[in-house]
Amino acid sequence: MSGAQPAESQAPTPRISIIVPTYNRARVLDRLLRALGRQTAPVDAFEVIVIDDGSTDATTSVLAQDYGYRLRALAQLNAGPASARNAGIACASGEIVLFVDDDVIPRDDLIERHLALHATLCAAVIGRIAAPDGVRQPAWVRWELDTLDRQYDDMVAGRFQPCARQFFTANASVRRDALMRAGLFDPEFRRAEDVELAYRLEAQGMRFVFANDAVVVHDTPRSLRAWMSVAEQYGEYDVLMWHRGVRYMLEMTAEDLAYARRLPLRLLARVLVGRRLPMSVLRRLGAIGIKSADRLSRATAARATCSVVFNLLYWDAFARAVGGRARFWELMTSELRPPWPAPAVE
Fold first, then answer.
1. HEC letters along 116-161
2. Element (H or E) spanning 236, and its range?
3. For residue 137, what are the β-bridge partners?
4. How many CB atoms lie within 10 A of CB 141?
5. What is the pLDDT of residue 134?
6. 316: closest CA among 260, 342, 277?
7. Phi, psi for residue 64 in degrees, rounded to 5
8. Is the distance from CB of 207 to CB of 122 less than 8 angstroms?
C-alpha cells in the first residue's frame, strides 16, 4: 500500500530517508506526517517510509493520503519496532537514514539540520527530544523529559561526550551503509533496540554527535502503568545486551547503584531488589505517591518519588534477568566492590 506521491521514475533520488514504524497510532501518525510536510528541506531531498507493524485501526487510511512528498508505506505482521525499522532500511533510497517515532512532532527544520551535519561529518547524529511548550504533562512524563534535558545540557556544556547510550530513534540519523555493516536492529529487542544497535555502531568506530538544534517535540504522554513497564523493560534488555557482549551494561549498573544514587535509595535497593512481595508493595505505594504528589502539584515530591520508583523497578528487573537476588548482588559487589557488603540473601 502507498499514499499519493509523485511517480518514482520522475523523482530524483532523495538524500535522506525518514523511517517511521507505527502500530495502532493513526491519529498521532497523521500529525507527524502533516508536520513532515512543513519541512524547510526541499521536498525532493527526502522520502518518508512508514512501516505499519500490524495495525488494526485507521492507519491504512492515513497512509493513503497525499502529504505533498514522497511517502512509501509498507505493511507487515506485528513483529516489533526493530523488525519494522529493518524493513524500512532495506528499501530506503537515501544515503542517510533519519529515525523518528510516530508520536513526535518535528520542528520545521529537522531534516535540514540533520542533512547539514552529515554534509560535514562522518558520525551518527543525535537530536533533541523536547517537551511541548505550555502543556502540563503528568509527573512521570515530566520526570522522563527532565532527565533527557539534563543529559542534553551536559552534552552542550561539554561535561560528557555523546555516545551510544543517547542514540534514541525518536530523533537520530546515520548513514545507511553503516547500518548495513552493523547488521541492522536486533528483532529480539522490544525495548532499547536503538541503543543496542548504537553499541554495535560504536564498536565499528562510529562517532556520535549531539545536534541541539535538531528538535522533535514529544507530546503523547504514556500512562503511569506503561511508564513503570518501561523501567522494567530497560532492566531486562540491558541484561540481554550484557549477555551479547556489552560489558558496559553491568559496569554502569554497578557504578550507578554504588556511587551515583543517594544513600536512602541505595538502602532501599538493598532491602527490596530481588524480593517479589516487597517490590509488589513498592509498585502500589509508589503509584499512589506519584499520583498524589502530581494531583497536589508537589513537583519536588513527585520528582523524587519518580526517581525512587523508576530506579528500583529497573534494578529489580535487572536482578530477575540475571537469575535472582543472590546473583544480582554478587555481580554488583564483584564489579566495583561498592562501599557496603552484599546483603544476606535467602
1. HHHHHCCCEEEEEEECCCCCCCCHHHHHHHHHHHHHHHHHHHCCCC
2. helix 224-243
3. none
4. 22
5. 83
6. 277
7. -85, -5
8. yes
State the Cα–Cα distance between residues 177 and 271, nearest whole angstrom: 48
pLDDT of residue 320: 97
Whole-prediction pTM value? 0.90
pLDDT (tens digit per residue) in 83-97: 999 999 999 999 999
pLDDT in tens, 113-130: 999 999 999 999 999 999
Rg of the chain on CA atoms, in Å: 21
**Which ranges in 273-298 belong to alpha helices (H)?**
276-295
What is d(CA 171, CA 156) in angstroms, rounded to the nearest whole number?
A: 17
In a 3-state reduction of DSSP, which class is residue 44?
helix
Using an 8 Å Cβ cutoff, are 62 and 26 in contact?
yes
Q: Kindly tell me if the per-residue pLDDT of 337 is higher than 80.
A: no
Alpha-carbon distances, residue 342 vs 49, 147, 261, 315, 329 (angstroms): 50, 29, 17, 15, 6
Cβ contacts of 4 within 8 Å, gap of 6 or more: 64, 65, 66, 71
Alpha-carbon gap, residue 35 to 20, rounded angstroms: 13
Cell 485501526, residue located: 57
